[in-house]
Structure formats: structure tokens, C-alpha cells
Amino acid sequence: MADWDLLLTNMRIATLRDAAADYGVIEDGALAIADGKIAWLGPLSECPAHDARETRSLDNRWITPALIDCHTHLIFGGNRAAEYEQRLAGVSYEQIAAQGGGILATVNATRAAAKDELHESALRRVRQLAASGVATLEIKSGYGLDVRNELKMLAIAKGLGEASGLCVQTTLLAAHTIPPEFRGKADDYISLICEEMLPVVAERKLADAVDAYCESIAFDAPQIAKLFRAATNAGLRVKLHADQLSDGGGAELAAHFDALSADHLEYTSAAGVRAMAKAGTTAVLLPGAFLTLAETQKPPIDALRANGIPIALATDCNPGTSPLCSIPDAMALGSRLFGLTPAECLAGVTREAARALGLEEDRGTLEPGKRADIAIWDIDHPRDLIYWMGVNPLSELLVGGRPLDT
Ligand code: NIG
Ligand code: FE
Q1: Which atom of ligand 1 is nearest to the CA of 93?
Q2: Is the CB of 171 under 6 A from ligand 1?
Q3: Looking at ligand 1, which residue's alpha carbon is closest to its atom 9?
Q4: Of 101, 317, 350, 381, which is the most exposed, with the fewest CB atoms less than 10 Å away?
């Protein structure tokens, strides 16, 4: 007889387990949890004989996989709302960067901030994400840009996982922009990352992946290729901010290095899409940045679909281009701005977001053997999650089978 910790009954389940079957709905479902994992799920009528320590009725609510935010920069000092006012008055993101604002403004504020202060402000954002149904999130460094401050950011990111009870994946984004000390010497800075940061980060296991910003205002393809070779040699997977403001061949570069994901992709070419398809690189779309930068060129959605590329969606939560701290709102924007279907949006923040983090074997769908990371919703249908904005229908979040106090 099956030995379970908890049996959930009387609910509708969106398993998201099959890309060909939209939400993968089970009506009148039941789901069993043992040792923090899903032990069984299916229609209640097919439930095997069991010995469950606790059974709970969910009163006909819906459950989905807990949500995953696979691209955030949510640790930062300072505030760049004033830059947004400048942009509204016609100054471009690139112009602000050239004047020493933009990412560098946040670098200055982040370097100056105490660790506790950064932890506290970021923890508020992590809790906000958890309150909207997120159980796993990725957090990038990239506002330190020297050994001490990049390590400080990664250590804070790890601490946020412990403090919040969520699963945090960390990414070294030291190649976010050229730090002031290296102005005009981008190659030297890339060498510093490869020779001094990466070895320490790899040895102390501070990062799960390495990211870079491929753009005219940041790094070019040869510089990033050098970084990615070093990352790969250190045993770390890579991902890339690719083709956000112009086609810099970012998608091809990411695919060449077998990247987990290529992110943004507004200016990606047909050749870039084909390269991603061949390599199995996940596309991460970031509608918050598209909206905030008043971008008009959409990512090549039809080509991504036609090539069978998994499409994930994320908040890109950051102080400069995406002041967005809600995954349901990222879904709403993904459908409004990019024309993604509600089922694509929900898959984008569950199954495909897990894939973007290399965690697809372990989470992102509701299937036996996967982590019992489950969001319980007060909704009539999963499409409601994409339709409403600024409304929070989350009823409860289970992380590893246990209720998280959101
Ligand atoms: O994902 N594109 C580069 N990085 C961020 C922006 C960071 C910032 O402006 O502070 C992004 O949009
Ligand atoms: Fe980003």
C-alpha cells in the first residue's frame, strides 16, 4: 500500500506535462506527496490504495506547478526612476549609459550599499514574487563588477534562498557592462573575470551559470566567446542577454556554446533562431523590459514556434529596464505584447522556465517524481492567471510539499 505524507483531493490540476496538450488538465484530480516529491497524481477515481498521514480537500480550486522566474536582477542599490523620466523626455537607454548612468548608476549604488541593506531590499522583492506563486527563481550578479562586489552579490543571492525558503539559482553576470576602472579596456576586464572571478566562483560553488550582455553598449561576441570558453572549462553552463537592442549575433553565440537560454531576442535573425533550435537553447522572453524601453520590435515569436524552440517568460526584475516584480503580470504582458497564448504563457513560467534553468527533470510540471512545488489558485480556469492584472488569486504555495508562509 502506498505510503504518503499528504493527499490533496477535490481539485482541478493543470499538469503542464505535455507541450502538445496545452495545460494538461485533470478534472476531479488527486495528488499525493511523499518526501517532498509528487508520489502520484491522476483522477481521484483512479487513486490507488494508500495510507496517507493527511488528506486535504481543495474545494474545487485549481493547482499548477509553482511558478519559476528564470531571469532576475533583483539585488541592487539605489533607484533609477529618474532615468525613466529622462527616457520619457526622449533620451535613449544607450545615451544614458554613455553618460555613465544606466547599469553603471546601479553599480555605484550597489558597491556603496551594505550587505544587510541589499539583502533586506532584495528580500522584499523575493517575498513579493513568492506571494505571486513563485517557488524557484534565478538571481544574477552584475551590479558589482569587481571581485569583491560580484562575490558579495552572489553570497546575498544564496542568503535570500535561505531567508525566504525558496529555491534560488545564482548566475554570475560580471560581464554586464564595462566597469569604470576598465573604461576603454573591455578585453582586460574580460581577462579579470576569466582569471580572477570565475575560478573562485566555481570553487566556492557560488554560481549555477554564467551570463553576459552581448550589445554595443556592453561586450562583443569575441569577448563573450572567451568568457564562455572559460566558464565551460570551469564546468559552468552559460546563458546570454542576446539581441535586445540590436542584432549582435547573440542567439548564434549562445547556441554555439550550448547555452541554457538566450534571453530578450527582440532583434534575433532567422539564422539565430535556427541555431538555437539546433542547439536546443531555450528562448527567455522579457516583456517587462520590452514595455519599459518602449521597444517596438517584437521577438520572432512565429519563427520560435515554427522551429519548436521552448519559450520561457520571466520578469527581468531590475531597476533600469524592468521594474516588474510579479510573474502573473509578466504572463499578462507576454500575451498582450507578444501574442503568446495563455497556455504558452503558463508553460513559459513553469515547464519552459525550468528548462531555461536546466531543472526540467526536477520541476516545472506536475508529474510523479518531481518536486512537490505546487501553486493552489482561486480561479475558474488557468487562463484567468493571464487575463487579470494586479490581482493575486494565489491561495497557497507548497514548496517541497510544505506550505510556504507567503
Ligand atoms: O536585462 N540588458 C541588460 N541588463 C538588464 C538591464 C539592467 C539595467 O538596466 O540595470 C536587462 O534589461
Ligand atoms: Fe536581464
Answers
A1: 9
A2: no
A3: 320
A4: 381
Per residue in 22-40, pLDDT (tens digit) is 999 999 999 999 999 999 9
Give residue-wise pLDDT tens across range 357-406: 999 999 999 999 999 999 999 999 999 999 999 999 999 999 999 999 87
Query: pLDDT tens-digit profile of 79-93?
Result: 999 999 999 999 999
Q: Quick check: CB of 244 below 6 Å from ligand 1?
A: yes
For the chain, percent of residues with pLDDT exceeding 70:
100
What distance in Å separates the CA atoms of residue 284 and residue 193, rounded to the nearest whole number?
25
Nearest CA to 324 out of 332, 90, 295, 354 is that of 332
Query: What length does the chain have?
Result: 406
Our answer on whether the CB atom of 76 is closer than 6 Å to any ligand 1 atom is no
Q: Which of 403, 377, 345, 379 is nearest to 132 (CA)?
A: 377
Which of 72, 73, 177, 267 to mutate for ligand 1's pocket (most ligand atoms within 8 Å of CB)?
A: 73
pTM here? 0.97
* Topology of the domain covering 67-356: TIM Barrel (3.20.20)
Q: Could you tell me the three cell numbers for 361? A: 527533470
- What CATH superfamily classification does 2-66+366-403 receive? Urease, subunit C, domain 1 (2.30.40.10)
Ligand nearest to the CA of 292: 1
Among 77, 67, 3, residue whose Cα is nearest residue 34? 3
Q: Is 143 in the pocket of ligand 1 (CB under 6 A)?
A: no
